């Protein structure tokens, strides 16, 4: 049933699954209702929901609505379907509408609505919600745009969605954003950055989270950890990932004599970093890529591949992508991992469930020498499509030009997007560009 939910049946199946506590069906129905909220609310069956079912649906961040007034209009339609029986429920429904996302004119119009002034309790609830405010209420999914995040030195970020032609540069002051060494985007859409500082025998780790509304980075905790076997942090690749709502910090020391990967996980309660199983290599590391997929972490080079299982705190060997000369970028999409080399000449996909690699088409340009030798290709996934950003040499004054390609899976081909990228070089803080859902007015205001 969960695999066969459709838009025409999702509300009926949701009600059925709710009665019989079929969690997997409930989840599948809610996902479809959220993605098609406007269409669903216009159907007759929507008005047959119970008040508990209605409030569960409208309380989620995942609603695909561009304005919060759409949620209010759906509530009005549900109440008016059986006005005498449902009007007394309105005060209990109203707290699930995010008044912090409404303009003052929208709020005034709701206060002046016949349903509200007819029920004194509703007016009091709205005024209380406005006065109290709730900064923790997030934007709905439909109000945001997926943006890949690239960096250019200190305090400069590029947010981009090539499919929609959105490229927004933000330059922060040191007070609004510190220098940082690693970045990740969590499953809750929190953008986290990590600043590291070498002390005599310790490393100080300072964590910051992005405040979307203020467009600044707020301190989220600081602690120190032992250096362990790391001899110089400046020569390490530093990475930050989330697995099952837990943050992991990686320091990959590529020293020729003792290549080593050290890892620590962040305890949200104590705000301390705890040691995890490390990974010792037999030979020196030239290029590698690290990526999370599902509940595992993957460390990939051309000759070795390791998978970390957090539940066991254990690394295990997997099949490496032998055919790729130098792995430089990799990204996960679903249960698969895509990776390629410096010249984007060999692209492969790894099926995590079967431990198998499959060859894909590489860059269609027959002249890889045009790629800028100092810039690495960057994979990123926006709107469930695989993209790659390439930096090529140019004869103009700036000396570089950006190319963005999107992968067409059925055709096994790369299609160039005419991306109007700023003529500056940006890079990823890791082997791929993290992607976050951004509310563009917050970015454009700076």
Write the layout of secondary structure elements.
Blueprint: H1 10-20, H2 23-35, H3 37-41, H4 51-58, H5 69-81, H6 83-86, H7 90-93, H8 104-111, H9 114-118, H10 120-132, E1 145-151, E2 156-161, E3 166-171, E4 182-185, E5 191-198, E6 202-211, E7 216-226, E8 236-243, E9 246-253, E10 260-267, E11 272-275, E12 279-280, E13 289-293, E14 296-300, E15 305-309, E16 314-318, E17 329-333, E18 336-340, E19 347-351, E20 356-360, E21 378-382, E22 385-393, E23 400-408, E24 413-417, E25 435-438, H11 440-444
Antiparallel strand pairs: 1-2, 1-25, 2-3, 4-5, 5-6, 6-7, 8-9, 9-10, 10-11, 10-12, 13-14, 14-15, 15-16, 17-18, 18-19, 19-20, 21-22, 22-23, 23-24
Helix pairs in contact: 1-2
Please tag this protein with its features.
single chain; 446 residues; alpha+beta; Serine Threonine Protein Phosphatase 5, Tetratricopeptide repeat; Neuraminidase; 2 domains; 5-stranded antiparallel sheet; 4-stranded antiparallel sheet; 11 helices; 25 strands
């Amino acid at each position: 049933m969960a695999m066969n939910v459709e838009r025409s049946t999702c509300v009926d199946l949701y009600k059925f699954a709710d009665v019989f506590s079929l969690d997997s069906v409930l989840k599948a129905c809610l996902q479809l209702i959220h993605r098609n909220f406007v269409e669903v609310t216009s159907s007759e069956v929507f008005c047959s929901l119970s008040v508990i079912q209605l409030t569960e649906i409208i309380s989620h961040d995942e609603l695909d609505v561009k304005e919060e007034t759409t949620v209010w209009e759906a509530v009005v339609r549900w109440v008016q379907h059986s006005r005498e029986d449902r009007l007394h429920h309105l005060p209990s429904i109203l707290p699930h509408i995010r008044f912090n996302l409404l303009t003052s004119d929208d709020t005034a119009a709701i206060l002046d609505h016949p349903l509200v002034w007819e029920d004194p309790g509703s007016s009091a609830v709205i005024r209380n919600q406005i006065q109290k405010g709730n900064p923790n209420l997030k934007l709905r999914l439909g109000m945001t745009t997926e943006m890949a995040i690239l960096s250019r030195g200190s305090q400069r970020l590029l947010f981009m969605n090539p499919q929609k032609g959105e490229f927004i540069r933000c330059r922060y002051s040191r007070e609004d954003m510190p220098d940082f060494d690693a970045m990740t985007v969590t499953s809750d859409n929190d953008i986290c950055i990590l600043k590291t500082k070498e002390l005599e025998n310790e490393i100080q780790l300072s964590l910051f989270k992005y405040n979307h509304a203020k467009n600044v980075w707020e301190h989220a905790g600081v602690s120190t950890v032992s250096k362990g076997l790391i001899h110089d942090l400046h020569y390490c690749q530093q990475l930050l990932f989330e697995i099952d709502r837990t943050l992991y910090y990686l320091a990959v020391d590529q020293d020729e004599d003792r290549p080593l990967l050290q890892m620590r996980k962040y305890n949200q309660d104590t705000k301390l970093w705890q040691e995890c199983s490390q990974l010792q290599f037999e030979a020196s590391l030239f290029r590698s890529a690290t990526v999370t997929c599902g509940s595992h972490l993957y460390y990939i080079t051309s000759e070795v591949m390791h998978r970390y299982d957090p539940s066991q705190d254990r690394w295990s060997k997997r099949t490496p992508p032998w055919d790729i000369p130098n792995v430089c970028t990799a990204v996960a999409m679903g249960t698969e991992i895509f990776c390629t080399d410096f010249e984007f000449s060999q692209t492969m996909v790894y099926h995590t469930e079967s431990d198998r690699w499959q060859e894909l088409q590489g860059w269609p340009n027959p002249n890889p020498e045009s790629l800028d030798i100092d810039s690495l290709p960057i994979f990123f996934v926006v709107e469930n499509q695989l993209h790659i950003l390439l930096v090529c040499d140019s004869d103009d004054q700036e000396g570089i030009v950006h190319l963005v390609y999107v992968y067409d899976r059925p055709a096994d081909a790369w299609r160039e997007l005419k991306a109007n990228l700023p003529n500056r070089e940006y890079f990823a803080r890791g082997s791929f560009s993290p992607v976050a859902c951004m509310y563009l007015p917050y970015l454009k205001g700076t």
